[in-house]
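User: I've been trying to design a sequence by hand for this structure and keep getting stuck. Would you show me what you'd pick, starting by listing the structure so we're on the same page?

Assistant: Good idea, let's start from the same input. This is the structure you sent:
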């Protein structure tokens, strides 16, 4: 009897991230892709209503033997803007945002022996004999930048990369995870994301202006036009509300682009307080976002993967950092914080609750969402202090204490 060979699998079929794929791995979306339907509806619905309104005006003018050519062009512009908006929406949400390929095993410790690392923190995962520093310093444009080890992807994140807790991938030049598009915004789709929000803003202003002109046009009785033209009223109110959202976002991203920051960096590091190593001047920053070549995807989602690769990939599903910290260690942290057992914490730690420290230890690497690091936000409230540096000091301090306490026990 012949043993049936397992069917060869493609990368997207054994994908470790939370992404969803369409058309046999040709399109990649985030796990919350369903929100794309809502976003499409919120754009296409009012755009369709606007076109219906314009076609009514055209019919009315033709019936009255008035010239309607200008209204045809109004309609064409609206259709072109809507199609462009949809196109950018699709480009942003359906392509690889710049996912960093995971390692199947942690990097060799030899690679890191020579490394200059100020951190006393070590990564000890599934391979206890292997010791890797949790952070290492990389020189970017003459500035020293700290890169962190990702426990899920088993790699040192490239500078500006961050792990998206929703998609469960490290993404290059991570900006944010967009819940409206259900996709990460990273190095490969940021340009399209900006085109999308700016086109949405223009579309909003356009529909608002035309609808308003349409009402004011009724010079004889503007109030009558307002009360009778419900569709135009709806479009005016809708676009007025929407433009604050998309317009505000466009302006904010214009500022980020001109200063070469990502949303994540802006929220977390606040470069206006310290020097931004990526800032090359306004013109070059714009060139980088809009005119540089988009790097090819580091994945071929349709490529067949080796069987052993699938096997190795299997246990890496969860964050081994969490696994490796035994319940005893967790109790150690708890007891240390809860009771006064002789350990003195730095002044700054005294106001912080124990749960927050433990939470921070658990999530420090696992989910790097801008709002996840409550400890950082607490510390940021302290005047004249660098939030990130202090954050790392605290974590280093608590963790080294934890080691000491475990040894003593
Ligand atoms: Zn990662
Ligand atoms: Zn994401």
């Amino acid at each position: 009897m012949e043993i049936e060979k397992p069917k060869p699998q493609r990368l997207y079929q054994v994908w470790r991230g939370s992404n969803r794929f369409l058309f046999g791995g040709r399109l990649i979306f985030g796990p919350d892709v369903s929100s794309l339907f809502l976003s499409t509806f919120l754009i296409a619905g009012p755009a369709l209503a606007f076109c219906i309104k314009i076609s009514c005006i055209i019919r009315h003018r033709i019936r009255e033997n008035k010239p309607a050519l200008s209204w045809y062009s109004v309609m064409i512009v609206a259709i072109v803007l809507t199609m462009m908006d949809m196109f950018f929406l699709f480009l942003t949400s359906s392509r690889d945002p710049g996912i960093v390929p995971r390692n199947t095993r942690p990097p060799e410790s030899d690679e890191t022996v020579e490394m200059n690392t100020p951190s006393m923190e070590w990564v000890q995962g599934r391979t206890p004999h292997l010791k890797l520093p949790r952070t290492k310093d990389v020189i970017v444009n003459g500035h020293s930048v700290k890169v962190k080890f990702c426990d899920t992807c088993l790699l040192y994140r490239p500078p500006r990369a961050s792990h998206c807790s929703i998609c469960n991938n490290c993404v290059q030049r991570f900006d944010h995870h967009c819940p409206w598009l259900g996709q990460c915004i990273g190095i490969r789709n940021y340009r399209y994301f900006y085109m999308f929000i700016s086109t949405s803003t223009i579309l909003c202003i356009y529909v608002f202006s035309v609808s308003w002109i349409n009402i004011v046009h009724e010079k004889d009785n503007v109030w009558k036009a307002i009360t009778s033209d419900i569709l135009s009223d709806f479009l005016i109110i809708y676009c007025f509300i929407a433009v604050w959202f998309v317009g505000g976002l466009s302006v904010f991203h214009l500022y980020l682009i001109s200063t070469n920051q990502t949303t994540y960096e802006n929220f977390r590091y606040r470069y206006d307080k310290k020097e931004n190593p990526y800032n090359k001047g306004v013109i070059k920053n714009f060139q980088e976002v809009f005119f540089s070549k988009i790097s090819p995807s580091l994945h071929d989602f349709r490529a067949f993967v080796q069987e052993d690769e699938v096997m190795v990939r299997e246990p890496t599903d969860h964050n081994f950092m969490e696994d490796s910290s035994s319940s005893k260690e967790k109790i150690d942290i708890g007891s240390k914080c809860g009771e006064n057992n002789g350990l003195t914490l730095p002044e700054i730690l005294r106001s912080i609750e124990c749960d927050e420290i433990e939470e921070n230890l658990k999530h420090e690497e696992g989910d790097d969402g801008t709002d996840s690091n409550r400890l950082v936000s607490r510390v940021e409230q302290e005047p004249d202090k660098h939030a990130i540096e202090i954050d790392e000091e605290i974590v280093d301090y608590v963790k080294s204490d934890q080691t000491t306490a475990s040894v003593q026990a």
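That's my pick for every position. To get oriented when you compare it with your attempt: Residues 11-97+181-290 form one domain. The radius of gyration is 27 Å.
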